[in-house]
Amino acid sequence: MSLTATLDIAKIREQFPVLNQQVNGHDLVYFDNAATSQKPRVVINALTGYYEGYNANIHRGIHTLAERATRAYEDTRLALKEFINAASTEEIIFTRGVTESINLVAQSYGRTFLGKGDEIIVSGLEHHSNIVPWQLTCGATGAQLKVIPVLESGELDIDAFKRLLSSKTKLVAVNHASNSLGIINPIQEIIALAHGAGAVVLIDGAQAGAHLAIDVQALDCDFYCLSSHKMYGPTGTGILYGKKQLLEAMPPYHGGGEMIKEVTFEKTTYNDLPYKFEAGTPNIADVVAYKYAVDFINGLGRETIASHEHELLTYATQRISALKGVKIYGTGPAKVSVVSFTVNGIHPFDIGQMLDARGIAVRTGHHCTQPLMDRFQIEGTVRASFAVYNTKKEIDQLIEGLERIINFMK
Amino acid sequence: MTINQLQDEIISEFSLLDGDMEMTVFYIMELGQNLAPMKEETKTEDNIVKGCQSKVWLTADLTGNAIHFHADSNTAITKGLVSLLVRIFNGQSPEAILNADLYFMQKIGMERFIGTQRSNGFAAMIRQMKLYALAYKTKMAVE
């Protein structure tokens, strides 16, 4: 008997207005959650509530609206600090999302502390956003990029990682869970090994926020990145978590208002954490609404959500595997709710178009992980990714659509 | 037949599908199966019109005042749409191709393929066909 509460999915779905529509004459089946998640009414209302009720510029104003807006903005920071169990709100920096978070570290940390002869290790599973910023850093500093190989199962080759680590390794950047394959990486082990070699670790948590428990103190990671829009929050925001002593040592990323203490033309001093890294008027409204996404997840309970998604993953994997000519990529035991597959003789693009004709939204192609597709020698896959509001009935519809496609193309 | 007469013919054929998107997609893929295949050696980097997921190859030649296109694609739906373009443009003059206003795509519910989707090489292909027409027209004027 399950110890976690069961979810009333129908009631949950009612909270997501976008789900209540038809596409091409069929009920929408939204299976592209790894690309972006849908938003519950509370998040949407928080956005409009902000603009209707208390929009004002934050941190500097002394009037009532400014005070309310500042309070709401900082409430989100506190909520996220607790969500990932950071030691202090000074370690939570608002960015535009994971891509910007990684670029911030790649520039501010990378270009300051790395030099010729140093090495950065990423993995073969990485999204372009956790590859290209490091390539830019290497170009600017003379450091070298190394890559952890990916096994046939989609899991990382940790033995190979151990062999890659050396005294030259200064930074390791890996994802918590793979957007393309769904594989959850053993980041606790990776972090411990990297620290043993004297390297800092950045974790790309874009695919973890909606699905996994995150405890940055337990993990002891040096940097952790979260994306709001992938965890039921609005687009355009996310966070970078960094250990305080690292962030203090890092020079500013963007210069401008808010991140300063005193400005003269001769010399400018910088603000304390976290504001040192938050230049200019931020994306206040979306940050304010982000807290409601965090509350939504906490309200349901992360374990309960994970349990439901695991059921969906198991059911989808089982039914998709049973189809003729199908190969699933990402067969390791620990996965978030993503199924990536190809069908013999049918291009993923065609499958995606045909599924869309039946109202089913999946992602096709290389999923911004071209090196990973090259590793498996494929052009791309069809990716179905599930969130808390998806159902087994929707998976049945996906299977029905796939069966029709396979039969037609015979 | 003129380009517009051919477009109207296509619109009429598709109207039998009653706007059913699934039937439309299946039908387009069937049409693609009838497209004369390009020789493998002509599917070169020079002749490719790249989209993010869907590739199209295109060559053209001029006989008298008529352009003939040869095209292929790696995805069934793009191949089908390509076959419709070839049907419309084959044997037409450079002038007619340059001045053509392609309205059939919208009428058969496929305007998404000439929209902002980077994934599909189809929109780039239409531009490429018109570029060939322009090149041939210029060449003819010079000779």
Q: Could you explain the architecture of this structure?
A:
The complex is a heterodimer of chains A (410) and B (143). With 410 residues, chain A is an alpha/beta fold. Helices cover 40% and strands 17% of the residues of chain A. Chain A has 14 helices and 17 strands. A 7-stranded mixed sheet of chain A has the order 4-10-9-8-7-5-6, sandwiched between helices. In chain A, strands 13-14-17-16 form a 4-stranded antiparallel sheet, with helices on one face. In chain A, strands 1-2 form a two-stranded antiparallel ribbon. Chain A is globular and about 75 Å long. The N and C termini of chain A lie far apart (44 Å). Chain B has 6 helices and 3 strands, in the order ααβββαααα. Chain B has a 3-stranded antiparallel sheet. The mean pLDDT of chain B is 89. Classes of the chains: A alpha/beta (410), B alpha+beta (143). The interface between A and B is medium-sized, with 20 and 17 residues.
How would you concisely characterize the structure shown here?
Chain A has 410 residues and is an alpha/beta fold.
The portion of residues assigned to helices of chain B is 40-55%
Overall 3D form of chain B: globular
Give the beta-strand count of chain B. 3
Fraction in helix of chain A: 25-40%
Arrangement of strands in the largest sheet of chain B: 1-2-3
How are the SSEs placed, and which strands pair?
The complex is a heterodimer of chains A (410) and B (143).
Chain A: H1 9-14, E1 22-23, E2 26-27, E3 29-30, H2 41-53, H3 64-83, E4 92-95, H4 98-113, E5 119-123, H5 132-141, E6 144-148, H6 158-164, E7 169-175, H7 187-196, E8 200-204, H8 216-219, E9 223-227, E10 238-242, H9 244-249, E11 260-263, E12 268-270, H10 284-300, H11 302-321, E13 326-329, E14 338-343, H12 348-357, E15 360-361, E16 363-365, H13 370-375, E17 381-385, H14 392-408
Parallel strand pairs in A: 3-15, 5-6, 5-7, 7-8, 8-9
Antiparallel strand pairs in A: 1-2, 4-10, 9-10, 11-12, 13-14, 14-17, 16-17
Helix pairs in contact in A: 2-10, 3-10, 4-5, 11-14
Chain B: H1 3-15, H2 21-33, E1 48-50, E2 55-63, E3 66-73, H3 76-89, H4 94-99, H5 104-107, H6 122-142
Antiparallel strand pairs in B: 1-2, 2-3
Helix pairs in contact in B: 1-3, 2-3
